[in-house]
Design a protein that fits this description.
The complex is a heterodimer. By secondary structure, chain A is of the alpha/beta class. Helix content of chain A is 35%, strand content 22%. In chain B, helix 3 runs antiparallel to helix 11. The chains are: A alpha/beta, B alpha+beta.
């Protein structure tokens, strides 16, 4: 059986701050102590696999580089509408993938009960293997936020 | 000058702009333009050749596996390193599972909506749809109940006034010709495909450690430990699970995907005569069965024009003709230099500019094989296999032609494959070939392990002298080659010539268009405001610009803009 809760990091690890999602996933795996009910995955920039993977889960958390108004490295958190209604503003740098996958799951009545998007505001998505300092410094706080979110979804899942 | 600009083409990876000029309801000129700069190879220079694949497989978010594979093969080719048989089989099984996933995703999620009008589902009779679908296969998901359920879902979506994931479709377009029941069947299978996709993708994860971005590759083999007596290593239980998954996905492909492509093809017979374009083809051999890369289960070769008898095989990973025949020309691309360069000498120096149909207009270079524009992809592979008498290719191509004759009464010949619909059919044929070979390679791996051979890795040894190698892989979108120059184990040059570069190629120094551009000539366009027909042909190639031209829009402009002039 697949774990009922999915945490995915999305991003391109060769495009500086866009690597945020995968880097948070690495940090989560390094820190350890993840409960059995969660599967943590680095999805790179794959769209189609997200559509398949969120179906029938209880809760899904997407970690992504953000393109919203605010200061570089600032952490934001959004709840995804469970009815599949797509927000009209651009937030994630990979928005069509996340929201398209969610819309499809909702149409099939197989969307997770809870969906959350968290991330930090990017500075640069130019070619490069290093994140900028303000985004890199957001990683520990994001790891902490993921653990808090897991505590919140635990009763239903565990 | 162009009269229609489609920017971006959606339901693909990355950013592609197509400009066409239309006269008398037909396309009379076309330009394919990638609007993002490609320079990702530069990130590899100076790095350890053994870790190049880890970066290379991040070139693209969709075909991660294929770049990792081409990269290790390039370094192994430079070192003339043999690979243990188990490693070849494990790699082959990953490549097969990845390609099965990719082809199913392409038909349903990236291109079906070019042919299927979801809004017509409301007019469909679920009972009639079940009768049609059940005449084609025994798939359990073809019940009247299932079709009723899907019709209800679409109805609620339409009544809500928000089409959600379907809001960008070409609904009620005059070029949409499926009857309501076929639309309902295809829409239902569009949803069911998701489960088949997940099932086959899990095989990639089981063998590769994770997916996307497999972890088990190494220059010299794979890092999978095989021990039949250990639950921590790869054992019979793994082989059994993989076999089961291949069987489950085989059921979906044989009973759903393959019949659907034949059904849609039968409803659009004219599309077997549209979209031919460049009819020079290239496919490389793949699924090696020996340690040296000289024997294969998928044949490679080149074709010039439609003369199948003149097919020239590419028989090994060491083929000199392939090694010497590839050049890239940047006359019409935003790069410095105007002379064709061999990939070992390739340069990636950007020279940005404005779109200029007579000058430079894309970030994609123009690859040429023996100086000719060349098409790659499942169609190339099927034609090369058919020309060379490859038994599995012949078997499944004939099965497709027979099914189309049963549905439509029309018997297709191999020449019909040089077309927009032919590219879809070739992908479905290739999927069935790969399923047969998946079973074969799993059995070969199991037998080899049972005979006592558990080796998976040969250690690479780098000389101080410069070495050059080419790694080839027949990826889901076609021939992929990585070209590596290394010294003392460090990378001096690295070039990836990817399938979409071949197909989305701009004009070359001699003014000859690339495959997308040539395939669009004479395409009918019923409504210039809604150029669905152009999109059909472009999607039939399965564009994936993310690796053809990488990274970012250097001007910083928003690219998500649809402009129809």
């Amino acid at each position: 059986m697949r774990p009922p809760v999915l945490v995915v990091g999305i991003g391109h690890t060769l495009m500086s701050d866009d690597a945020l999602g995968p880097r948070v996933v690495e940090a989560l795996e390094r820190r350890g102590g993840l409960p059995d009910f969660v599967e943590v995955r680095d999805f790179g920039t794959t769209a189609s696999e997200l559509s398949e993977e969120i179906l029938d889960r209880e809760a899904v958390l997407v970690i992504d580089a953000l393109a919203v108004e605010g200061a570089p490295g600032e952490i934001h958190c959004f709840e995804l509408a469970a009815n599949g209604a797509l927000p009209t503003t651009r937030m994630s740098t990979h928005q069509p993938d996340v929201f398209g996958a969610w819309g499809l799951a909702a149409l099939l009545e197989r969307a997770p009960r809870r969906g959350t998007l968290i991330g930090a505001i990017t500075v640069s998505t130019e070619l490069g293997t290093e994140m900028t300092p303000s985004v890199r410094e957001a990683v520990p706080a994001l790891v902490h936020t993921v653990h808090r979110w897991l505590d919140e979804v635990r009763p239903a899942a565990a | 000058m162009p009269t229609i600009t489609i920017d971006p083409i959606t339901r693909i990876e990355g950013h592609l702009r197509i400009d066409v000029s239309v006269d008398g309801g037909r396309v009379n000129d076309a330009w394919a333009s990638c609007t993002m700069w490609r320079g990702i190879e530069n990130i590899l220079l100076g790095r350890d050749a053994r870790e190049a694949w880890l970066f290379a497989q991040r070139f693209c978010g969709v075909c991660t596996t294929v770049h990792g594979m081409a990269s290790v093969r390039a370094v192994e080719n430079a070192l003339e390193l043999e690979i243990p048989k188990n490693a070849q089989y494990i790699r082959n099984l990953i490549l097969i599972a990845h390609a099965l996933h990719d082809h199913i995703v392409h038909f349903y999620h990236l291109s079906a909506l070019d042919w299927v009008d979801v809004t017509q589902v409301l007019k469909a009779d679920p009972k009639k749809a079940a009768k049609v679908a059940q005449s084609l296969s025994d798939w359990p998901g073809n019940s009247e109940k299932e079709f009723k359920l899907v019709k209800g879902r679409v109805q609620r979506l339409v009544e809500s006034g928000q089409l959600g994931i379907f809001k960008h479709g070409y609904w009620d377009h005059p070029a949409m010709k499926l009857d309501p029941e076929t639309n309902l069947i295809a829409t239902t299978h569009y949803f069911q495909a998701l489960d088949a996709q997940r099932k086959i993708n899990e095989v990639v994860g089981w063998l590769g450690g994770k997916t996307p971005h497999i972890q088990n590759l190494a220059v010299g083999g794979v890092m999978n430990a095989i021990n039949l007596d250990s639950s921590a290593a790869m054992n019979m239980d793994h082989f059994y699970r993989i076999g089961n998954r291949l069987d489950e996905v085989r059921a979906f492909v044989e009973q759903v995907y393959f019949p659907d492509v034949c059904l849609v093809g039968s409803a659009y017979p004219e599309w077997f005569g549209i979209g031919r374009g460049v009819d020079n083809y290239l496919a490389v051999p793949d699924l090696p069965t020996d340690t040296q890369g000289t024997q294969f289960d998928l044949p490679g070769g080149t074709l010039k024009g439609s003369a199948l008898k003149a097919m020239k095989p590419i028989e090994t990973f060491h083929d000199q003709r392939l090694r010497e025949s590839v050049t890239e020309d940047s006359t019409h691309a935003w790069y410095e230099g105007d002379q064709p360069l061999h990939p070992f000498k390739g340069e990636t120096k950007p020279a940005p500019g404005e779109w200029d149909g007579d000058g430079a207009y894309t970030w994609v270079k123009a690859p040429r094989f023996a100086d000719e524009p060349t098409q790659v992809g499942p169609l190339a592979q099927v034609l090369v296999g058919y020309a060379g008498g490859h038994a599995l290719t012949k078997k499944h191509t004939d099965a497709a032609f027979d099914l189309i004759k049963t549905i439509s009464g029309k018997k297709l010949g191999i020449d019909a494959m040089h077309s927009t619909m032919g590219r879809h059919l070739a992908r479905a044929i290739r999927t069935r070939i790969l399923l047969d070979l998946g079973k074969k390679h799993l059995n070969a791996l199991t037998s080899n392990v049972l005979s006592g051979d558990v080796a998976t890795f040969n250690k690479p040894d780098f000389p101080d002298t410069p070495i050059e190698g080419v790694g080839m892989h027949e990826a889901p979108r076609g021939t992929l080659t990585h070209w590596v120059v290394a010294k003392s184990g460090r990378l001096d040059n690295y070039q990836a010539v990817v399938p979409t570069t071949w197909n989305a190629s701009p004009r070359d120094g001699k003014g000859r268009p690339g495959p997308y551009e040539a395939s669009l000539l004479n395409t009918p366009v019923a409504d210039p405001e809604l150029p669905l027909e152009v999109i059909r042909t472009v999607h039939s190639f399965d564009p994936c610009m993310a690796c053809a031209c990488h990274a970012f829009d250097p001007s910083g402009k928003t690219l998500a803009k649809v402009k129809v002039l």
